[in-house]
Design a protein that fits this description.
single chain, alpha+beta, Nucleotidyltransferase, domain 5, 4-stranded mixed beta sheet
Length: about 120
C-alpha cells in the first residue's frame, strides 16, 4: 500500500531534522512552517528548549495578512533576521522541515540571509 502525502511529508521532515541535528550541534534552529495561507518561522534553542524569536505572516504590523505569496515570505524573513539580532543570534541553521526548498521557503531563507542572518 502506498504512503499518503502526509506520511511522506512526516518522513521527509524527520529525515531533514535528524541530519541537521547531527551536523549543527550547538547552534540555534530556524524552523519554518508553511500552511496553504500563511508562513511562520521560529528561532529555537534546542539545548534550553526555548523559542528565542518568531515571526509570522499573520502579524498585523507587517500589512501582509491574508497575502499568500513570495513577497510576504520575504518580509517574514527580514523580520526574523532583525529579531534574531535583537536576541543576540547571528548564526542559525535552516530547518525547512518537510517542505521543499522552493518558492516561499526559499524566499524566506534568502531574505533572512540578505538581512544579515547567517544560515
Amino acid at each position: 500500500m502506498a504512503n499518503s502525502k502526509r506520511d511522506l511529508f512526516l518522513k521527509r521532515r524527520l529525515r531533514v531534522r535528524n541530519k541537521l541535528r547531527k551536523v549543527n550541534a550547538g547552534r540555534v534552529r530556524l524552523s519554518v512552517h508553511r500552511s496553504s495561507k500563511n508562513i511562520s518561522v521560529q528561532l529555537i534553542d534546542d539545548v534550553k528548549g526555548i523559542t528565542l524569536a518568531s515571526a509570522s505572516s499573520l502579524e498585523k504590523d507587517l500589512g501582509i495578512v491574508g497575502k499568500n505569496n513570495v513577497e510576504a515570505a520575504a518580509k517574514v524573513g527580514q523580520m526574523i533576521a532583525e529579531r534574531a539580532k535583537k536576541a543576540g543570534v547571528e548564526e542559525a541553521y535552516f530547518d525547512r522541515g518537510g517542505f521543499l526548498y522552493h518558492g516561499k521557503v526559499k524566499a524566506l531563507a534568502d531574505a533572512a540571509r540578505e538581512a544579515g542572518l547567517r544560515l
